[in-house]
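[[Encoded backbone]]
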Amino acid sequence: EVIFFSKADYEGVRLPHDDPVVVTLLMELFTMKIIFIDSGSSADILYKHAFDQLRIPTDQLKPVKTPLIGFVGEMVHPLRSIDLFMVADTAPRQTQVQMTFMVV
């Protein structure tokens, strides 16, 4: 399936650009309006504040032992991780995937 962007999607964007893609997806029955997709990252990050708003029981969180290393070498220790389902698009062209997020 071809993904395309309309002129409205380019409002405020200076071309050419190398910014991450920003999309809206359904996450565990909540619409996440700003999701940054950075293909250079090896981890999927969910900030604690966003996790709290999902109202998912904390007993679904799994321990994480490995720290995350940023671009300039800073180290962040995730609080925990969680597997969540993400839904893109609407039926009949809907795609659902399960992703593991590091909660920071």
Summary: The radius of gyration is 16 Å. Residues 60 and 82 are 7 Å apart (CA to CA).
